[in-house]
Amino acid sequence: MSASERRPGAIPLLPTKQDRDRPLTFRWAARDRDWSDALGLPAARRRNLAAARSAVLLSAIKAAAAGAKYISYSRNHNFYDDAHRRYQGPTFTHANITGAVDQLAGAGLLESQVSKRGELGRQSRFRATAKLIDIAPDVPAVCMPHELIRLKDTSGRLIDYLDTEETCRMRREIAAINEALADITVELLHGGAVRQGPVIRLEDAILYPEMMSLWRVFGRGTFARHGRMYGGWWQNVPKDARQSLRIEGEAVSEPDYRAHHCRICYVLAGLPEPNGDPHLISGWDTPAGRELCKSAFNILINAVTPQKALAALAKKIEGCKYVRAASREMATAAIDAVRQRHEPIASFFANDSAMTLMRFDSEIAVQVVRKLLRRGIVALPIHDSFIVQQRHGGELRAAMDDAWATFRSGQIATAHQGYNGKASYRWVPSLAPTCPPGRPPYTVPGRAAWRPVSASIFQRRSSRKKFVTPASAAACRRDAP
Q1: Which of 98, 150, 378, 403 has its CA 20 to 30 A from that of 192?
Q2: pLDDT-based confidence at 186, cuts 50/70/90?
């Protein structure tokens, strides 16, 4: 039932994934550059306008195939800053987008709704019309993200940054991985999967098989947090259906790191890894009890305060927003059991540690994929697990063991850089007792464990150009020490 059909005075329900508007992105590129000639549109006055018009049309077609109703965009000049041009490309400007939407709406290809100026809480939006779907129901396209290294601030918004030797290195690594992914075929042979044009529907998941490119996302305004790889369509396949994937027509295998973050915490604290299953606790040794303790551990390392950790676990037990006393008591008991079992690393609990742990597991994942590429094996990463052809399962496990040994020896480094470009530090993890478990030095610049990177990599900043584009990565390498 839509929002307009609900009775007056009823409590509004949360919008579903299909009801929410999708933000406009320029990640899709048609395989045939002349595909829009069949639409009978007049020639664009500028090359950038033609590229923006094609991107808007592809976004509308892909959204319609997935069941999304509208795509939202801004008609405010202040919205189109340097960050949007970095992540969406130079054609993502106010003049190009508004001009393209207005022209396509006038041609009857888009249904446009322009919000009034000063109307808060609503953005202008558009969607594909029946005319556009009839002419071009499915345009062969490929997902080509403009920027492979993404940085978000504390509120989750993409922000601009200055390129350094580290960002150029990471960009080259992801570009090499994407080049290898583009040469393989990945299929899903699941009985419940339904192919509808360019998308595959499996349970509640909507999959785009054309999304074969990866990118890395960093958070909290620093390259020392997060950093995991996203973008591959296989990452959205439900876990129990991943064995139905096929790489070049062959069955797959998916080894993973067991209790990955828990073991990383012990390594960072300079302690030996726990024996056996870290999530199997005495008194909670049933399958349901183990899953509850695992959820409690994950919530503890993600939470900012103990109170928020308790509330989150109680809601997970209850399955809804309103929590009964019994669920709260069970959550309290589970958290106490986890704290007692992992008392040596208790300083990582309720301390917003998960983003930092993701930074380490992401670097381990990149190393695993790169090690396999040197042997001619392409792996599909899913954070702490990897999908390869079954005949390469042994090589994958060996690469995972090598990457973990490299991390334990302290040879995997992470970079710390503020997005304002004022300071850059690199810290190498060590098992030495100089890294106390209370607060590791990777969050505080100026400690003895830090060594500064030369400031010459920031001298390319000018008043007219605030960032270095991916095309000038070679220039970054020349300026780097």
Answers
A1: 378
A2: very high
Lowest mean pLDDT among 104-108, 279-283, 358-362, 446-450: 446-450
Nearest-angstrom CA–CA distance, 217 and 347:
26
Contacts of 54 (CB under 8 A, 6+ apart): 30, 35, 36
Nearest to 481 by CA among 462, 459, 466: 459
Q: What is the set of domains in the chain, with CATH numbers?
A: 16-143 (1.10.10.10), 149-253+355-458 (no CATH), 279-341 (no CATH)
- Whole-structure pTM value: 0.80
**Residues with Cβ < 8 Å from 460, sequence gap 6 or more?**
162, 163, 468, 475, 476, 479
Three-point CA angle 266, 361, 247, nearest 5°: 135
Rounded distance, CA 79 to CA 40, Å? Answer: 31
Strand partners, 414: 427
Q: Can you tell me the distance from the alpha carbon of 311 to that of 323, in angstroms, rounded to the nearest whole number? A: 8
Q: Among 267, 270, 285, 271, which Cα is nearest to 337's?
A: 285
The amino acid sitting at 288 is A
Task: Copy the structure tokens of residue 379.
Answer: 């792996």
Strand 215-218 and strand 149-151: the pairing is parallel
Listed in sequence order, the residues at least 6 apart from 378 whose beta carbon sits closer than 8 Å to its beta carbon are 180, 181, 183, 184, 247, 372, 388
By the 8 A CB rule, do 140 and 30 touch?
A: yes
**313 backbone dihedrals φ, ψ, rounded to 5°:** -70, -35
Work out whether the CA dihedral 299, 300, 303, 305 comes out positive or negative.
Answer: positive
